[in-house]
Write the structure tokens for this entry.
Amino acid sequence: MAYTGSEDLEKIIQGCIRKNDKSREMLYKQYFGYALSVALLYNNQRDDALEVVNDSFMKVFSEIRRFNTSLPFKGWLRKIVINTSIDRLRKKNRMKNIEPDNEPVREEHLNPDAISNLTAQEIISLLNQLPEVHKTIFCLYEIDGYNHEEIAAKLKIPESSSRVYLTRAKKKMRELLLTHYNRNHI
């Protein structure tokens, strides 16, 4: 049975609540690609992203009773994938004691054409060149719309550190764009 709409999704979720393996498989297959695309934003290595996706689905299946079917499933799944990615990053880097250095940040400007001509693949490639903490904060803020207070709480860092990391991520992205296109800044 293929997913065809919200009625089918509700049936699949009810099957998952009953721990029906076929329903779990259908949910996994239907949302695997979406979950992987989110995980790839927060993990530089595909193997790490796949691990995050599988861990996320384990959380989905164990917490599916809590899902409010009046809300979009993709939004709930996205939060789980993001939080699982952050947990993985925190464990990997022991972010509790990470503090940004006090190096001053210079603002540089980039030709807008450089940005508008980028493909999605090139953007992901550039994002993957950022340090993991910078990339995570950049994605949380710029892509997923979290504010600095929320990011600081999720990553267990000071709010000011979130701001500094975002500024540094943007600076590094500009530098990478300049290098990528071999252009001088204006």
